[in-house]
Amino acid sequence: MSAAQNVRPRKPRPREQRSRSASAALHTALVAASVVAVFPVLFIVYVSLRGRDGWQEPTRWTGLDVSNYTHILGETKFLTWFGNSVVVALGTTVLGVLISATAGYAVSRMRFPGHRPLMWTFLVVQMFPMAVLIVPLYNILGELELLDSYAGLIVTYCSVSVPFCAWMLKGYFDTIPAEIDEAGRVDGLSPFGTFWRLVVPLARPGLAVTGFYSFITAWGEVAFASQFMSSEEHYTLAVGLQTFVGQQKAEWGLMTAAAVLITVPAAVVFFVAQRHLVAGLTAGGTKG
Fold first, then answer.
1. Among 6, 101, 107, 193, which residue's beta carbon has the most beta carbons within 10 A?
2. C-alpha to C-alpha distance for 158 and 103, rounded to whole angstroms
3. Where would you find the membrane-spanning parts of this chain (predicted)?
4. pLDDT tens digit string along 107-156?
5. C-alpha closest to that of 287 among 167, 196, 179
6. What dihedral do alpha carbons 231, 236, 237, 238 form, nearest 10°?
């Protein structure tokens, strides 16, 4: 028997275990970070349940009630603002994802003059702050007679979300093998048929990320909505909340209750899309 056969394979070393003090310090840091992250949310919920003037003395225990919520839902136009925000957010999500997906797929798969400068243009557009864009967008919407309308606000939000989403989806489509497109062409599918029937089902994680980003962009935006929506029946939630703040007094109890209600749809969308978020973000960043 040779010497090589007598050599036994080395057993893998057991992974080093943390000491009790290091483990305790790690868990303490995690608990502290969790408390810091959750405390503002819990405090807002607590203040919203203290009544109209409970925010003035938050440390004084006087019981909890839902008067702020009943006042908002029954005596204000909160439900109208909520419906307007749903229309604008869903319209922005659907239109923004459609434009971003087609643009990202075209740049990923097709070679046409200016396809690289197009993606860099998308990236440069993201660098402009919203305050700089308000005046030119206001003039454009005024010329198109889209001021104080859902369509104008949806187009405005798409101009903000589409550049980032198209850039990210282009990187995601790069990770999908081009052989799938070739197989679709062999089967007689048109370019759009290949995109819609073969590529889109494989791109669900990337589409989920862009859809979530587009929804959040439209759901919580204030600057554009407050400037482009002039009639109260067209206010979104972010703009409607400003009516609770006057020159003499601010209704912080109503503000906190409305803030809690506003976060519910965003949290629902997040939980629906969360299983795709990590995969979509990581895959979209592997190639550029």
1. 101
2. 13
3. 21-49, 86-106, 118-138, 150-169, 252-273
4. 888 877 777 787 788 778 778 888 888 999 999 999 999 999 999 999 99
5. 167
6. -90
